[in-house]
Amino acid sequence: MGQFGIGQPVRRKEDVRLLTGKGQYTDDVNFDGQTWAAFVRSPQAHAKILSIDTSAAKAAPGVVGVFTGTDMKADGVGTLITDVEFKDLAGKDMFRPKRDFMTIDRVRFVGEIVAVVLANTQAQAKAAAELVMVDYDGLPAVGSTAFAASPDSPVIWEEHGSNVGIHWENRPEAEIDVHMAKAKTRVTVDIVNNRVVPNPMEPRCAVSKWENGELTMYAPTQGGRRIQQGIAKIVMNLPADKVRIISPDVGGGFGIRGKLYPELGVVAWAARKIDRPVKWRGDRSETFVSDYHGRDQINHAELGLDANGRVVALKVRTIVNCGAYFAENGPRLPINGGGRIIPGVYDIENFYFSVRPVLSNTVPTDTYRGAGRPEANFLMERLMDAAADATGLARDEIRRRNVIKPEQFPYRTQMGMLIDSGDFIGNMDMAMKAADWAGFDARRAESAKRGKLRGIGLSNFVEPSGGRPTEEMRIAVSPEGKATVYAGTHSHGQGHETVWAQLLESFLGIPFENVTLVQGDTKIMPKEAAGTFGSRSSWMGGVGLQRSAKRIVEKGTKIAANLMQSEPEKVSFDAGVFRAGTSSVTLAEVAKASYEPKNLPDGMEPGLDESYFLKRDPEEFNYPNGTHVIEVEVDPDLGKIEMLNYIAVDDCGKVLNPFIVHGQVYGGVAQGIGQAMTEMTVYDDEGQLVTGSFMDYGMPRAEHLSMIDALFNEVPCKTNDLGVKGAGEAGACGAPGAFVSAVCDALKGYGIRHIDMPMTPDRVWATIQKAKAGKAA
Amino acid sequence: MLINVNMTINGKAVSGQVEARTLLVEFIRDHQRLTGTHVGCDTTQCGCCTVHVDGKAVKSCTMLAVQATGKSVITIEGLAQADGTLHPVQEAFREHHGLQCGFCTPGMVMMGVDICRRHPNADEHTVRQELEGNICRCTGYQGIVEAIMDASAKMAGGKA
Amino acid sequence: MENFGYHTPASVADAAKLLDANEDAKLMSGGMTLLPTLKQRLAAPSDLIDLAKIPDIKGVCRDGDELVIGAMTTHAEVHENALVRELIPGLASLAGQIGDPAVRHRGTIGGSCANADPAADYPAGTLGHGATFVTNKRKIAADDFFLGLFETALEPGEIIVGVRFPIPVWSHYQKLRHPASGYAVVGVLVAQTKSGVRVAVTGAGPSAFRATAMEEALAKDFSVKAIEGITVDADDLNNDIHASAAYRAHVVTVLAKRAVAAR
Q1: Interface test with C, best of A762, A763, A769 (most C CBs within 10 A)
Q2: Is the pLDDT of residue A741 over 90?
Q3: Mutant choice from B86, B129, B142 vs A, greatest count of A C-beta within 10 A
Q4: What is the ipTM of this complex?
Q5: Which residues span the domain enclosing C26?
Q6: Residue A751 CB: number of other CB atoms within 10 A?
Q7: Please, which pLDDT band fits residue C57 given cuts at 50, 70 and 90?
Q8: 3-class DSSP state for residue A575?
Q9: Are residues B74 and B95 in the same domain?
Q10: Residue B83 within any structural domain of the chain
Q11: What is the pLDDT of residues A277-298, one digit of tens each?
């Protein structure tokens, strides 16, 4: 394989552009004559809207229009998407509240849009927005996850009569109680999986124009097709091809930027309404209360083990705080997203789980890096640590006894998923060796001399990857033999410009530098484009490209046969050259010829331009997995944790570009560490987001992290031709469990078994004090 | 009331009439259309807007354009040589995968240059401390820290 | 943010005149707190009086037993200044822990102290060293300067022109950084000065204060052990989502001990 082929640590094509300020993000785009939008957002978490007086705002300097949800409704605009349907065991449907793009008679979270002001400048729009007078009749609010689920809580959707959308169960609990009763050892854990604010570094924004009966809108998305369809159908009442969504360079996605947000609908609708372009530049404060949040679960779980430390039954009850509305995927995450994989890498036959998605006066939650799997893996790893503690087995030993063994693959989980491959013992061995687990006691002793408490922790994980089951990729080879990839996937940091070029060099022999990526424009992306999320692109995009390339070769073979006066059956293709006997033609020559009908077999369309619509079978999910080990030091006087060392062993299947996959691991780990250490999202009793800026919300910074040593235990995936498994979300799945395990290991002298995330100094110190007092008592 | 401002940006004299409240980053992005400098927050925390004013890294979201009058401003667009040769810090970011989505990158690079200027042969601890005011959500900082350490060593070597 | 008139007086006297003439005017030094406040529309002054063009209130010099730091001297300049490093290294170190490098390139000692953020570092630095604020009208001892939450002894029209630090025998600053803002959750400066031991605390209370019980104990016996059991009263301290008052009280003692241990 050449220097730029599959598996090579190729440096990124996109970097020079991004390093020299030539990236083009949505806020860099302006349309002539554009107006500026400013949203009037609710300062109250829960209130009836008695009236909205826009007259003063309308009269303010530079104001072009002020609109409310009533105006949108009058234009026939529908409600936002909730892409989730569940039934409980009795067959009753989940409650699905409808969300208007701008709320009309009630606000349900701080930041909810009440009105939009359009003005000639952004300053005018913002000033006028302050003049929109909304008369609120405040109602009791609920921000806390546990409280939202309790019967004492205020109910925020009266028509449903409860904040609980559904009590979903995978099966009757009694079926598993039978097995649990046989357990020799039973352990329970109660966990808060803290809400996080995803915070891509690019604040959300959009700019739209209405021209010749068509809407064009730039916005940072993770692939605009679904947003295009939603805007066309729900907002504009237009055929999809009259709406064009362009996502140029996008400053981070992390799952939450793939959604049809109300702001997008309003900016689109308003451009037609006033017949002038509209630009909205959200600031960070707005991003905090309008981008969907992530996680926010409470788990109660019980694990039953036999005398050999083998799990005999697992029961989990989850409450997930979905916010004021069920967003596109909100309630799906703890059920299909992560819940069904809670047993993780372990061979657990008897599994009960129930989920209660609750509504509260908070920003809706949705997919955030891992989307249910980090929560699931974290829960299982906390249970394993508890089991180790209760049985007296070492933390690795309890895991070794329970992991799915190589001979069990393909392994059908209790929930019916088919895990094709993995080397779970191998992951642990590799990670523990790299971390010098065996030598840890000496390091602990050395730390103790300095008054520090050292701990080591490990976490296994597996995370079904692939996202939505369809994708389309297209390769067009020019007469010069250069290729353009029209991708249904969308790179916003993942380096597809580089990796897709590597694949084409490998598949077609087209030089790396001669491959261009086109993405993120609904007008020119493939029809069935889906986008990038759910660790899917290497599989859905990579295999899609592989199959498109195969079609290029098939067609090229026929043309080459014609050119060489041979038969297609006698033509072979390798490294960009078609051969038949002693004759040969290059792909570039074939490409050139393909545009001249005289060279083509009868009936063949000119050109060398092929696409592939990939439809994945449910059995073709892939299962990235791994073991992460982290070492920390706790300063017991301050409760401050220092991360010392991190080993990530990942099985991402076949690695297309280790340089880039390492980057995915580092980033995912940082988000996992952030959740575990610094990222605290706090709603107060009035439903105010107290941590609504980078002054209060602890984004992980360089100083919070150590170097991460990322290793691969490469077990090629058996269900796709490339052998790839996902990589984007692995770090976020592995890090929280390893981190908490390590901190609790450091604090085991106090008898501390668990501390909820984020483990801030204040919280760690308080836990130590409580433990000390408990001991003294 | 508009105020005249003039400064050099990337070595080129520029001037304009702005409101007093116009931030330096707004002057750079909206008036001069140099969109490499980004805005990632509104509380002077993220560092996406970092530029150099008279050779020192500052957050251009927290400085008025008028405050830069008479000063020399360097933005990410002005860092590479005219022939396209990347600055050692830019080159190191490329080599060490110091960027993913690229949004924080201009600010990171400008801060990186400043760190290298103040800390020849910077060690890991120093670099992590010095990146206090620059937030990245993609990279876990690993490639960024490696890149700045590498560039700092190379730039120090070049001077010796 | 709302627009405002912008002025760059060439002297402190001119600045004071402008301040007198415009009731809703505000002084700006580095702008590191003021500009974010305006951007968030939390304040809307009619005029900003930028002190940047006043030549003689910037820089560091020695005046006998005192180090004089001009109000417009940036944190970076204090941190890197050879005189400060030689004579009050504890102060140089403190200045290097404020905010981040870009903020330190703009933020100033005068601005920081006039703002009197309860979690800022300089209040501990000035109070702990027994510094004196020199204004256009008078001199104010640091002990009399910080009155409360964002409240100082400065009168309307009064402008800090410099801060005089008695050169201590020794000083050291310890800080527990807020993980998000970088401000001090707690910061403690311990100084051995010619007039005795001083322990100043920031971040913990509504305003910087001196831990007098610790000062007395350290005056008798300058050792970690001497302040082992001394705690400040948690009832007077800040209690928020990031740190409880009890935690802050505890951390004050921990950091004070660590500062003493650094001697």
Answers
A1: A762
A2: yes
A3: B142
A4: 0.98
A5: 1-50
A6: 10
A7: very high
A8: coil
A9: no
A10: no
A11: 999 999 999 999 999 999 999 9
